[in-house]
Each structure stands twice: as C-alpha cells, then as structure tokens.
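Quick question about two entries, pasted in order.
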Amino acid sequence: MIRYILKRILLLIPVIIAVSFLVFTLMDLAPGDPIETMLAGGAELSLEDIQALREQFHLDRSVFFRYGIYMLNLLQGDLGVSDVTGIDVWNLFTTRLPYTLVLALGGLIIGAGISIPMGIRAAKRAGKLTDNVTTTFTLIGMSMPGFWLGILLILLFSQHLGWFPAGGARHGFRSFVLPAVCSGMMLMALSTRQTRSSMLEVLKSDYLRTARAKGVPEKSVIRQHALGNAWIPIVTTIGTSLSASLAGSAVVESVFAWPGIGRMTVEAVNARDVTTVTGAVIMTTIIYVLIQLAVDVLYAFVDPRIKAQYIGTKKKKAGPPTKPALNVSNPSVAAALAGSGNKGAATATVSPAAVSHAAGSASGSIYENEADEAAPKAKPSAADVITKSFATRTIDLKKAEMDLDDADVPATVSGEFMPGRYHKRSRAAEIFRSLRRNKGAMAGLSIVGVLLGLLIFSLFISFDAIIEPNVAARFTPPGSQFWFGSDGLGRDQFLRVVFGTRYSLGIGFGATILQAVIGIFLGTLAGYYGKIIDEIIMRFSDILASIPGILLGMVIVTVLGQSFPNLIVAVAVTGIPIYIRITRASILSIRGQEYVEAAKAIGLSDFRIMFTQVLSNGLAPIIVTFTTSLGITIIVAASLSFLGFGVPVPHPEWGALISGGREFIRNAPWLTTFPGIFIMVTVLAFNLLGDGLRDALDPKQKK
C-alpha cells in the first residue's frame, strides 16, 4: 500500500511539469502583458520605466527562459509575485484556500449525508412512487446549473425570507450556509443516482437472500452486506464530485462573492496576471490529483479484494486449464468420437441408454418418415445421432434468443427449423423499439424536437430585433405583450431567449462533436496499437484531465478571444479525456476478436480495420456518452458565459442572460428565471435521452 501511494505521488511530478508548462505558455500567448495592465489602470510610466519593468519581468526573453526561471523558483517553494498587485502568490493562495476547502467539505457533508440514504431507499422501492420521485429529483438536480441555483437560493432565502446574507463571508456561519447548499446539490444528485444504481445490482445477489434466510435483521443486511459491496462506485462518484466542486468553485464563489481560490483565479485571468493564474492552477491541480489518490487508497478500506492486490507476496502462476476429457463406455460412440478428433482423457461415461435417449430427442424417430415405419431404413450410427442432437439443440437455442411475438415464430417440420417466414429486426429497430417503450426517453426526444423547432424559428429573427432598445417598456413583467417580460432596455426577453438557442445548442452540438472526433480517434489508436502509442496518448489524457475544466476553459478563451467558435474550442478541450478513455476501453475488449484477425489475414490496412471493423462494433458506450455530454457542454458553456468568458455582449447566450439579469433579481426576477429554465429543460432532455439509450444498448441497466 505504501509503495503504491509513493508511486502515485511520484507520478505527480510529470503532471505538475506538464500542467505548469501548458498554462504558462497559454497565458503567455494571451494578448497583453502586466505592463499594459498597469498602463490601462492609469499608471504613468516613462519609456525608461517600461524598459526596466520589461527586464524585471523578463519580457525581453523567450517564453522557455521565463518558464525555466518560474520552475526554479517553484522548486524552492516560491510561486512568484503577482504581476498586478505585487503580493506573494503563495500568501494569496494560502489565504484563500481555507474558504474553498470549507465550502467543498460542507457541500460534501450535505450531499453525501442526504444522497446515500435517499439512494438506498429508492433502490429498496424500485419502480414505486418513492423511486420515481427520487429519480426525478436527481435528474433535475443534475440538469440545473450551479450558478442559477445559487441565484434562486439568494432570491428565496436572502431577498424574500431574509434568513441568510446574499454574499460575502462577514457573517460567519450564516454566510456559509447558502454556498454550501449550492455546492452540495450537484454532488447530492450524482451520488443519489449512483447509490441507487449500485444498490439495485447488489440487492439482487444470492448472498443477501442467504443472509435473510439465516435470520439476519434487514437493517444489517442493507448496511453491512448490501452497502458494503456497493461502496466502490459510490466512493468514486463522491470523490469525483468533490474534485469537481473544488475545481468548479469559481462559479459558486462568484455568485456568492465568496473569497476562495476560484474567485481569485477568475480575477487574475481577467487581469492577465500570468504568475497568479499559473500558481493557482498548479496548486488546484495538485489538490485535485491528491483527492483522486485519496479515493483510490480509500478503495482498499471499503473493499478487501483491492487491498489484497497491494500485498507484495509472490503467488504461483496457475497453469493453463486442462480441457475436460470424455470417457465413453460404448465402443461405437467411442470410435465415432475418436474419429472426430477428440483425444481427451476419460473422466465421464456415456451409456448406450443415454445415446438412445439422445437419438430420440434429436429426431423423434429413427425413421425418416412416420408413414414408412413398416419399411425401416438403416439405423443411424451413434456419431450421426449425437451430431444431429447437437445441431437441433443449437437451433432451439437460436429460437429461444429471438425477440419475437408469438405470431413471428416459424414452424418446424421433422425437427428442421424453417427460417423463411422469419425476419429478424435490425439493431437500429431494436433500439428504437426500446426507446419507444421508455417514457422518459420519449419525453426527452420530444423536448429536443421542440428545441430544434425553436432553433429553426430563431433563424427568422433579425439581430436588430433583439438589441434595439425600447425605453418606454423597461422592466415590463411577463404578459400578453412580452411573454417573458422585458429587460432594462425594454427588449423582448422571449425573443432574446429564443434567439439564444442558436448559441447554446450550437455550442452544445459543436463542442460535443469536436471532442468526440478527437477523443474517439486518439482512443482508437491507443486501444488498437497499445504499447508506446497507448502510453503517450493516455499520459496526454491524464494531464488534460488533471486540469480543472472551468479553469482551462477560461485560459483558452483568454488566449483565443471571446467569440462563438473560440468558446466551442474551449468547451470541447475539457471533454476530450472522457472520450479517449471510453473508446480505448471499448477497443481493448474487441481488438482480439476472430473477425479482426481474419481482417488482418486478408490484408486489410490498420486504418480500415480500426474504423470499419473494430470501432463500428464498440459504438454503444460512445453513443451514450455523446448524449450525456451534450448536457454537460451546455452547462460548461453557460458557466463560462456567466463568468464573462463566453459569447461577447450583446449576443444573448443563456448564461450571459442570467449574468446580466442577476443585478435586477429583486425587481425583475424573470430576467434570470426563463433562461435558467431553458438551460435546465435542455440538459434534462439530453439526460433522459441518454438514459433511454443506455437502457436500450445495455438491458442490465433497466429498472
């Protein structure tokens, strides 16, 4: 165990080097520098002062030289000095870190404390009202963007009820409650969903029925036996959610003005403070990876089977399994089997009576025609009888596997199967049939259809109609004139929200397609070739996955500039690692199949084998990932727009609409309500559709 922990800690070194170089280089490519920031802030500098500052910040040297200086200082525990404020970055980080850790741990306690009992209760009452309510609640929680939830919490508990302050950390525990609840909601939704799924699989196990039969109390059966064997996926989800909440703290901290490292990083990126951004991202990445390490180590304490893998004892390698041999007492059968090539040793015995029974089950009669029993033909040999028996049983198994109605089952004549009247459904038809029976999937598909209709409708709305002010209609509540009300300039909020579908859906589909193409290509290469190519691609995936997605997206948008295509690229990069891993796992399970070897034998190229033979048979998990990724990319894009790194104003992207409307939340709550509802409903639709596809492609996941 200690050896494993030390190995994982040593692997942090190349990750830190790669992450620091990537972030440092990206920030260096961003337009502007610290001197321009000082001049923009009103500082009066002479040419001599500017030249001295350029030499001080090594701006007259190459980026590699500056990075080398930075890493030498980092090895000495020096994160540098802020390019803007002149304050030591380590002091800035350590001052803000306790606020972020307290917020993340508070969300963990709230989320895990509620989700685990709720998931267990839903699994015990699968298919009933409790289960349906819990499933609906978790889907809504997963589909609700964190910044919009935070605004709703402020509107209810701060503005209307006055129970908690709206932001800051000056009121002690009362200031902590709303940010912690907002942080714990997403963790609660994911953890409840995973707990329910894991418990459903465990509750069907035989050892639980045995424990109940022995008289073990039901509470002990659930807590000790069932939950003890379902901890692995639950702990994984909780650990991943904790890492995500720590990395994505920038959103929650910005909503509640919480003085954590996420808010500090946002301010540093906006100020082009390269040293502060690099230090904050590096330290956040270290904490992120350490949490993943803690989750891996925790596996050994909740599952003894994993702990046994870390014990360094040498085990004898088991030899190849011996094939079961067949001992036949009947000379005719023995001769027939010997002639067919069976050379196994004798352990089992087949009597003449058994052979006679096999003959009866194979054809029903030793005569070819029941009407000609008076003139029997030669009795078939034992080998023919066994061959006929096996062939008929194979046919029966094929008939049993067919998913047919009673009217589709073809007739048999004299033990022969007649496939002429049978038309098997295609794989696509089976999937559509399963989706059609799934009410949630059909609801999601219907919502997606409506959204696509609104997208087409938005193409007929002119851009001038959504930006032209109408001062006389400022802050008009929703009604017959303005269905969604109007904003501070009197602009129709309904037209602006509908117009925003082209941005949100465009980013969702564009970013998901881009990350899927790159991730599938790299994952296919890694899974098919293995060895050094696999190592290079997977280390690249690990490095990319170690950088918090929101922070990486902010840096990329800062470098490329705020625009619709650049936002697609920024969101797509954050989702590439998941496609690499899923595709690689799918390819690894397929590449050793016989048809792949046959394709190699006939001389097909590797490229053709990978993308026509192997990948086409491993698309099921990738398709499910694609549908669920659509909702995630929409939330990430909306979060970046909310923080000011999305589509530039005055383009009405949904996240930007919520950001612009939160200033008037007390007097005009509709400005944030309707864009938030559109985000939630859109993500919910894709989640429902993804669940339906998962059930259609993997029947074991059904209720």
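Here is the second entry:
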Amino acid sequence: MRKVIFAVFALFTLMGKAQQTPATAGNPFFGEYSTVHGTVPFDLVSNKYYEEAIDRGMALQNEEIAAIVNQRSVPDFENTIVALERTGADLNRVLNVFYPLLSALSDDEMMEISLRVSAKLSAHSTGISLNEGLWNRIKQVYENREKFNLDVEDAMLLQRTYDSFARSGANLQGEQRDTFRNLSAKLSDLTTKFGQNVLKELNTYEIWLTADDLAGLPESSVESASDAAKAKGRDGEYLFTLDQPVYSAFMKFSSRPDLREKFYRLYNGRNTKGEYSNMEIMSEIADTRRLIAELFGHKNFAEYALERTMAETPANVNKLLEQLTEAYKPAQQREFAEIEKFASELEGKPVKLHPWDYSYYSNKLREAKYNYDEEELRPYFELNNVIDGVFGLATKLYGLNFVPNSDIQVYHPDVKAFDVNDENGEFIGVIYTDFFPRESKRPGAWMTSFREEYVGEDGVKVHPHVTIVMNFTKPTSSKPALLTPYEVETFLHEFGHALHGLLADTKYASLSGTNVYRDFVELPSQFNENYLTQKDFLDGFAKHYQTGEPIPQNLVDKIVNSSQFGAGYACLRQLGFGLTDMAWHTATSKIEDPVALERDAVKEVSMFEDVDGCLFSPQFSHIFSGGYAAGYYSYKWAEVLDADAFAMFLENGLFDRETANKFRNNVLSRGGTEHPMTLYKRFRGQEPTIDALLERDGIKQSKKMPELPQPVPSKKD
C-alpha cells in the first residue's frame, strides 16, 4: 500500500482497484487513464468526483488488505510485504490529484471536501496500521527475514514496513489503540484547518495605494499593481497584495518606512486573530503530536519523529543549530553594524534597524558595495530563457531533454507540460510547470507528483509525472515575466526536487524519488542552487529579453561577488525557524502561551526587538501542515550536505559527467532504498563536514559537522 504505512499523517499519499457502476461511470478516477503517458485527464476532473472516488478507493483497499490477511499461504516477502505495497492504486489515483490541486488550484468546495475526507482518511490509515492480522503477518516475515533471499531494496522495504507499522500503533494494546485512532483523526483535522486558514486569510488582503505612495518602487511593481487595480475596475489606483513576490519587492524597494511597517505588520500578523486565527490550532496540533509520541514511550514528539532521520535525536539537531549559531552570529552582528552605519549616512541621522527596514537598507548597501540592483538584472532573466537554462543544466549533467507536449492536458492555462527523455531518446517521465500566483494557489514553492516511479507487477517500469509549482513575478501588459536572481534560485531548487523524482530507478514507489529521510530530501534541491553563482551556467541562457544581448560580465560578477552578502542574517533567520520548530515539538506539556514560546526559542538568534502582534508560528505551514514537524532543521542539515557535494563539482568541473553520474546513480536515482549516509558516502567518498558551507558563505571559522549516526539495523519495537 506504499506510503500509507510510512507516513500515517501524510494522507494524500495513500494508494487500489475498482469496478464502475452505472451511476458513477463518468468518474475519471474509476480506471486507468487513456491519455498520453497515462497522464491525468484534467478536462474530466471535477469536484463532484473526488469524494466518491476516495470512498470507493478506501473500500477497495480494505478488500485488498483482507485478501492478504485471509490467505492460507505462510507469510513471505512476496505475498505479504510486496502485496501490501501494491494495494491502494485506486485511492492513490484520486488523492494524487486532489491534494496537489488543493494547494495549486483550490476553491471553497475543495476545502470543504478536504475537511470532510480528512477524518475518514485518517481512520482508514489508522485502521490499516492497527490491523492485527496484517501486523502478525508482517512480524512473521520480519522475524524470519534471514530465510528470504532479499536484495538491498527488498530488505529496506521490509524494514520500513515493519518500522512504520510499529511506529503507527501496531504494538499498542487495548485502550491505547482507541486513543491512537482518536488522536490521529484529530491531528488530521487540525492540520487541514491550519493550512486552509493560511490560504484563506492571505487572499483577504487588498492594499490600495495612490501614486503618492509609490516612491522607490521599480517599474515592474508599479505596473503590476496598476494592472491589478484595473482588473478590479479602479483605473488610476494601485492594488498590492501579500503574495510573496509582491510583498518581497515592496519591502526591498519602497522608500516609505511607514508603508514598509504597515506591510510588515500585516504580513507577519496573519492568522494571529479573527476568523482565521491559528493560535489555538497550532497549540492543539503540537499537543496532539506530543500525546501520540507518549503512546510510543517518548518524552516529546521530536524524539519520536527524529528516530527515522539522519540526525536521529534532538540532541544532534540542537548541536548543529548551536554550532551554526556560534559560527554565523558574529558575521550577522558585523553585517548589521555596517547596515546601520550606511543607513545613518544615507538618511543623515542615526538609524536603528527595524525588521521592516532590513530588506530596504541591505539592498541599498548591496547596491552601493557591488553596484548590485536586482531590477537591473531582471531583463536578463526572462522566464522562457530561464526555463531553457534550468532544463539545460539537466541536459549538461545527466543528458536529459525536455520537449513541450501540448497533447498532455493541464489543470490551468498557466501550466505547461513537457516530455522528459534521456540522451538516447528513451522516455523518462513528465514534468509540469506552474509559475504564477493566483487566488486559488497557496503561497510559496513546491514540487509534488501526480504519479511516482516504480516497477509494476508485470515487470514494466511505470514512469513518474512530477510538477513544480511557484509564485513568480507575473507578466505585465507591456513586459513578459522577468525574474529576479532569487526567483531563478527558487526555480533551481524546485527543479532539483523534480529531478529526484524523475530520475528515480527503484522497484517500489514507497522508496522512490523523494521518499527519503526528511533531512536528506533537500540535498538535490539545494545542490542545484549552487549553479546560480556560476558564470559558465549563467552564460548559457541569461540574455536581454529585448536585444538578445548575453548578460554582461560585470553583471555576472555582481551576482557572484555579492553572493555572500547577508549570509549571517540569512543563516540566523533559518536557525530561528528551526529552533522554533524544535521548541514546539520538544514540549512535554501543552503550550499555553505561543508568543512566549516563540520569543524564548529565538532569543539566541534574534536580530530585532520583538514586534507586538507579529509572530511567524501561525503561518508556519511547513511544520503545522506541511510534513516538517520537528524537521525544519533539515534545510540547514541539507545545506551542509549540498555545499560539501558541490565542492566535488568545483574540484572536477561544473558539468563533469563522471561526477554528475556518480551523483545521479548514488543519490538521485536510489531514493530511499538505502540509508542516506551510505548513499552519500558512496557518491562523495567521505562523510560531509561544514567546512565547504563556511567557505561558501565567507565565514572564517571552520568546524566539523556533528558526527552523523551511522546506519544501524532498527531495533524491534
């Protein structure tokens, strides 16, 4: 049944077979898709089909589970573990459309459906995990595993199946089982509500400004705001929202401190009060997770969650966060002293840096030091050229080719679909791109799959269908979509995740692609980001959208020379998120004062005085509704890995195919088939240190990364 038993709370990854009935024969989820590459027939997808397909999929998977449990054959790897892995195809078919679209193309009806089905899906998942007959068969196979001729991937599937059931309550008895069922259902409902509140409140913000309020803003921001106002029938005014590209540009360029403060307070005060408040919900989420962890004998949720990660324990996480704080805090303090001195000279009076001032003055200082202006760079990053450059990176490294395929249906006119082929013309998979903000899309950027790679029962490889979703600067009435270097970096990041899914070469979907330890999953994405500062990469695609002139050397130098600018601030900001996450999930009782918890968690890395009414936890979707609970540290953990990995390319050549093939064959293609440290050392030839990260960021200290736990056999629960 694939990932259902490996991530009991990630309900959108469940998987089954079905028969149509006359009343529902039009439901596109009731059979395999008769489309190009078996892609989703989005023109047939409608909200009215989701719930009945989910109910049917759960019922069919229950029948498949019953067939495994009730068979007379002695339990073995094929008739129990592999059979379980293959259950749920019909349920997976609908959920692997519903949940991606719930994030990218949602409406009120979909949100209502999500609320209705979340409890049912949680109960379904928990029911499988607590099926005693199924658990007894799994245990019997596990305890006799030496008798089976298992290869490395088979052994990992067995280990993860056993561990996932044990960690999902299979060993619980009596009232504990009922408690687990109830807590799981409650958690599913709470996390769904949290995510919906974030999206709903974000969509309520309309900030109307006049021409007198636009001082400092670039032409692109002004034109976008004018177009947005005209679309609302208010010509001559300017409409701003809190969508990420709009907010970021305003905070960076507006010379009006009063308006920057207004935007900051609105953005960072979201979901703290009113109809869409998450204040009580996040406390309930954290406490429900704590109670689940206690059922399994753990003091807190972080201790429970980190067992199946590279870090393994909260102590190892905290050790890394402390080391990075020690290394980067002096750099951040030097940065702030320089910015305040510069701002004071610029304004002709003493300036104390507030959080709504950082982007503005740091951008001014960056421009003064390096003559760096992101707006000056936008014309060289026209979206179609960037697509060619980012896709071209995969061509140079791995021999992949991307061919637009208009026969593949898409879920929105902004979305494009591409066939992905290898250098021999063999089909690899499909990638969808979705770049622009809209009211139906949640903020941020992400990669997901409509179908994962695996080998079917007939021995034929099933090719992956992945999608990358972002919120980039939109085209205006006079210009195409022109990206900032930061947006190009975001594209590179999500494309790295996509390659992890596309290049998967495994037998089992639950071990395929991005189905790896959480603190390993960001390695391929963050690895890709390194290319943004490489001249040889930029020269391949960055050209002026009007003249076709290649990006001048002096502009490339500006990107490269300024790449270390603000490294201290950026690191401490990320550490603040990681420390807050750990504070929520190492609590041993319910958090009654979220404000005090967040303030205390970040005190060692805090860079500004507290702002009343502003808190990031209520919008912290990553940890409260996005699967990163007790795992946000993994971005920094993976950053250590990506810097160390990229150092090998710097040594051997940016596009060295031999090095790239080692990365592909030992990291990208192997998914979760082996312990990530085993895979990494096979690629790199050694364990990672933080030396490469410190060198890349211009930090003078050189410290070793905390010694990473070596892969060891899991103990029986």
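Reply: Residues 314-347 form the longest helix (34 residues). Residues 1-23, 710-717 have pLDDT under 50 and may be disordered. Hope that helps.
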